[in-house]
Structures are given as C-alpha cells and as structure tokens.
C-alpha cells in the first residue's frame, strides 16, 4: 500500500530525513514510534503529498506522492496532529462540509458522532469543544468518506483513559473493516496494543522495524518470578527459558507450595531505549 525507498528530505540545508526505506502492507496498522521532533509528522506529510521537495521515492497506492493528482485524496483519510475544524461551524456542519468534498462512500454522520460519544454535541460550535472532544471529532472527520488508507497522527494524545480506549477500539474496528492504517505515537502502550509492526524513528532515521512482539523478544530474556512461604514470604526468579532447570521451582511445583508466579518481558519502551539510546517522551 505504501513503499518508501531511500527517502531524503530537509526543511533547511541540512538533510533531516535521510535514506528512509520501509513499506506498509495492505490491511496492517503500521506505527511510527519516536520522541518529539523525531520526524514522524514530517514523514506523514511527505506521504500525503504536502512536502513534495523530497528525494528518493514515496509511493502511496501506486502514486508517487510528489506527483499526485486530485484523485489522490479520495481514498485517504487524515487525522492531523492539530484540530483542522472550522471553529465557527458546528460539529455536524464541519462533517457535512468535509464529506461533500469527496465523491464516494459517504458514511452516516450521525453514526460516526454516536460512535465517539458526540451525538449530543453535534450542533455545538467547535470553538466550544474541549480538547478531547476536538480530538474525537478530528478522528471521525478522517472517516467520513470511508477511505481505504488512514493516516492518524497521535490519535490518542490528550484523551482521558475512557476516550483513549474508545479511540483504540475504533481504530481496531477500522482495521477489521479492511483499512490500512499508518499511525504515529510516542505512547508505547498504544503502539504495542494497536500496531502489527512499528518503526522506531529518531532524528529522521529508522532504527528498527518489526512487530512489537518480535522487538520485545529480540532483546533480553523474559524473567519468571515466583514466591513461596518459608519463614515468611520468599521470592526468587530465573529466565523463562531456564524454568525446567530451576530445582527450587521444580520442588515447589511438585509440593504444590507456590504462592505466586509471573513472567515479565521487557517493555517496548525498554527496547526503544536499548536500540536508539533515547526515551520516547
Ligand atoms: N515547517 C517546518 N519548517 C522547518 N522545520 C520544521 C517544520 N516542521 C517541522 N520541522 C522540524 O522538523 C523536526 C521534526 O518535526 P516533526 O513534526 O516531524 O516531529 P514529530 O516526530 O512529529 O514530533 P512530535 O511527536 O512532537 O509531533 C523538528 O525539529 C521540527 O522543528
Ligand atoms: Mg508530530
């Protein structure tokens, strides 16, 4: 769905994005994970044809982004980092306006408003919306024409836990409906939960690209920690792959004396730090 090859771009004389290559397969959720200023939004803007003065190749669908025609956007939905609504119009008027710009497959505005819990605010001016309400409205604006490809820039940022959950469920639902989704985030829980594959990006460069599971498993063994009662609570741990050889653990299992046992893998954040030397925030 997206092929990027040796992409190089700069805002000034110094190259910022340098030799970036990756592809996004149809039907997957692909995440850009990186700290603030890493270049996540810049790459999205290149793929959206908004920054045409790049070198190398960036193909979306079968179109080289810098050469796109007016049909390019019919199958693309974008949830930008910042609200892109007309503040003096109501939520419904905004959605009706943006929907009218597309030719095909208009989705029900009432259903979309209901899906993000904005049905009672549909006729309120966007200027009077809270930040989280604007985020939710911005998201459904990307869906009005039921596009095949979705670009979501920090879709959960600024949302409370309930709305963040709702947003993530909607993103997964869009995936089930067959969409290809490219999302940027610096929230590693969201990336782990939502993305089929993630790209670690720092300073405009790609440091790693794989599924969250493979990235986590590629570094550091998972540990098993167990507890038992023996003159008070005792605990010990071993590598998950060495459980069978751990005599104490085997004895505790045989004697049914385990109080608790749990395994813990490194988090995606740990792996990100190990690979890039940077934290995600
Ligand atoms: N229009 C612009 N002109 C000049 N420099 C820019 C422009 N837009 C972004 N930059 C610079 O490019 C770098 C990357 O910005 P970008 O918005 O792509 O980062 P990001 O990874 O999306 O960060 P965040 O997580 O904060 O959204 C930053 O150093 C930023 O200052
Ligand atoms: Mg950004």
By CATH, the topology of the largest domain is Rossmann fold
Number of strands: 13
In the CATH hierarchy, what is the class of the largest domain? Alpha Beta
Which oligomeric state applies? single chain
What's the CATH superfamily of the largest domain, by name?
P-loop containing nucleotide triphosphate hydrolases
The residue fraction in helices comes out at 25-40%
Approximately what portion of the residues adopt beta-strand conformation? Answer: 25-35%
Helix run count: 9
* Tally of structural domains: 2
CATH architecture of the largest domain: 3-Layer(aba) Sandwich
Please compute the radius of gyration using only Cα atoms: 23 Å
Order of helices and strands: EEEHEEEHHHEHEHEEHEEHEH
Calculate the terminal CA-CA distance, rounded to whole Å: 29 Å
Which whole number gives the mean pLDDT?
92
Secondary structure layout plus pairing:
Elements: E1 2-9, E2 17-24, E3 29-33, H1 40-47, E4 55-60, E5 63-64, E6 76-79, H2 91-100, H3 109-115, H4 131-141, E7 149-153, H5 161-176, E8 180-185, H6 188-194, E9 197-202, E10 205-210, H7 212-218, E11 223-229, E12 233-239, H8 247-254, E13 258-264, H9 268-276
This protein binds adenosine-5'-triphosphate (ATP) and magnesium ion (MG).
Q: What do you see in this structure?
A:
- The chain is α/β, with parallel strands linked by helices and 281 residues long.
- 30% of the residues lie in helices and 27% in strands.
- It has helices at 40-47, 91-100, 109-115, 131-141, 161-176, 188-194, 212-218, 247-254, 268-276, and strands spanning 2-9, 17-24, 29-33, 55-60, 63-64, 76-79, 149-153, 180-185, 197-202, 205-210, 223-229, 233-239, 258-264.
- Strands 6-7-8-3-9-10 form a six-stranded mixed beta sheet, with helices on both faces.
- Residues 11, 16, 34, 36-42, 81, 186 line the site of adenosine-5'-triphosphate.
């Amino acid at each position: 769905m997206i092929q990027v090859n040796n992409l190089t771009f700069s805002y000034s004389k110094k190259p910022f994005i340098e030799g970036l290559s990756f592809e996004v397969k149809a039907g997957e959720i692909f995440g850009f994970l990186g700290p603030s200023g890493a270049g996540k939004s810049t790459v999205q803007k290149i793929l959206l044809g908004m920054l045409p003065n790049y070198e190398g190749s960036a193909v979306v669908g079968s179109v080289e982004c810098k050469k796109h025609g007016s049909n390019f956007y019919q199958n693309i939905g974008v949830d930008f980092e910042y609200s892109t609504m007309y503040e003096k119009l109501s939520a419904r008027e905004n959605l009706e306006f943006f929907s009218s710009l597309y030719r095909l497959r208009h989705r029900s505005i009432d259903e979309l408003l209901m899906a993000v819990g904005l049905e009672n605010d549909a006729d309120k001016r966007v200027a009077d919306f809270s930040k989280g309400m604007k985020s939710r409205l911005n998201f459904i604006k990307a869906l009005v024409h039921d596009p095949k490809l979705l670009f979501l820039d920090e879709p959960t940022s600024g949302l409370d836990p309930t709305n963040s959950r709702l947003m993530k469920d909607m993103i997964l639902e869009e995936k089930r409906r067959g969409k290809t989704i490219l999302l940027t985030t610096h929230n590693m829980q969201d990336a782990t939960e939502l993305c089929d594959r993630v790209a670690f990006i720092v300073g405009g460069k790609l440091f790693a690209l794989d599924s969250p599971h493979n990235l986590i498993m590629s570094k550091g063994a998972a540990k098993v920690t167990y507890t038992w009662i023996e003159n008070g609570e005792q605990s010990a741990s071993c590598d998950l792959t060495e459980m069978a050889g751990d005599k104490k653990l085997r004895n505790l299992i045989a004697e049914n004396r385990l109080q608790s046992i749990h395994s813990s893998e490194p988090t995606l954040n740990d792996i990100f730090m190990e690979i890039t030397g940077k934290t995600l925030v």
